Amino acid sequence: MIFYVSTLKCLEIYFKNFVLKFHCFLLGALLISTNCFVHCVQNCVQFCMHCVQKLKKEYDAALKGQATAKKQLEDETIMRVDLENRIQSLKEELAFQTEVHKQVSTAVSLFGASQLCGETISHCCRSTQSLCRGWFRRSVPVVGSEMTVL
Hints:
By secondary structure, the chain is mostly helical. Helices cover 85% and strands 0% of the residues.
């Protein structure tokens, strides 16, 4: 019986030792798998950080492009408005010159080119006297000494 008791105690100790080793093995495996998981998470975090940096650069470039496009749009809008104003001014000048031309043509047809004098020109252009001066200087040829420009 002593033999059985000592064998039983020996088996009990052996079993406890085996269970401890098995627990250590399981803990080691768990530690290894935990380390693998942590390593995978770290790799994922690094990849995400790389993506964030790349997206931030793209975002900054897009903001810069937006600012450039906005500035170009403002410049082109100003240029368009200036050109529209210039067109309007040229249309008004053309209408004025057409009216002056009609008045001078009427005066020439009524009085004849040789009888056109300074008073007739003055009468035609009384309401727009300053504009008529420049136009007549550029456009109407002087007919003898009878023609005077205001």
